[in-house]
Design a protein that fits this description.
With 397 residues, the protein is α/β, with parallel strands linked by helices. It is built from 16 helices and seven strands.
Amino acid sequence: MASLRDRLNIYKHKKEDREDTPRPSPAGFGAEKINEGEAALWRIASTYDLSGPAERLGILSTSDIAAFARHNGMGPGVGFDDLLFVDLETTSLSTAAGSYAFLFGVGTARGKDLFIEQYFMSDYAEEAEILRKLAPLFQKRTAVTYNGKSFDIPLLKTRYRINRVPGFPVDKKTIDLLHPTRAIFKSIYENCALGTIEQNVLGLEREKDIPSWLIPEVYFSYQKHGETARMGPVIEHHRQDIATLALLILFLNRLYEQIESRRFDALHRQSIVNIARGLYRRDPALFIDMARFLGDDMFHERRIFKRFGAAMKRLGRRDEVLALWKKDGSVYSLEELAKHSEHIDKDFRSALMHCEAAMAMLESGLIAQNGKLQDADTIAAQIRRFEARMARLRRRM
């Protein structure tokens, strides 16, 4: 594995390296020249068959993303055919004015195929024409990226602004698949990088793939020395990134369909925990069913446990949640039992007993049985709250 110094060295631009060097035609690595007005652009067009990988992943439809839309705040009218899968290969990891996208990639659905267009910037002067070519696609379709909200979309906005090319829809909503992916698979894999998800979730294996961090250096070598030997692997790497975006959103849609149909046993246990954390406000009924499915694991997920209690109280199903609070026996549960005894049963003595049990736990530095010792400030704050509640209960008694 290359060191950080080696990775950073590819971004160094010495004066002697920027001298004009005759560059071979991009046709040598599969690009075709197309005329766009008075300009000529270099394009690599290809078709990716989605049906094979989709069938292997159990994706029944390659046109419906309704479940994904419902869980990610999208309008009901957006379908798979309305999406524009976008990926950039850039000269640096920055979105500042000095960073260029030398390879622009877009993918659109055509039945069970994904039509992929990659526009290669053989010279910096070609950038504006590429941006003009792509602008109508961004206007008509919803862009889908991976980490695009932080990188691809800000960089595109910068490039359109610098080149004074109109037509890029600055305020149009885009879909960044990193966020739902991270919300589902966090803590399951070492990270949620696209390559990690591609391999572990989608089961895709790349042969002789070029590392992402090395790609800028390949472009610099083309610009400086006319090297094209490694450009083919860069084109293929970029193409696969775009195809992976399409497969990933279809896979996530199927996963959300399984959730909505209560097929929780088909999901990774940690994924259920991760998803449940975000369902409390969006779909309380589904949240309750997922929390129930977790069984005793819910006791170890304090935020889910607390929200489950709140949801059950709101639905008037107190008997079920009372049994859980008694089984849990944490400071939180003892307080909830005290509230119930005081305000519902009007049994102030039982409420006081629950508070005394909580105080005994707090004096041991704990807020949950078999839990970790808490810091002094946390314990002191909890004790003050229970002292006030106990004083009120004694007055009422």
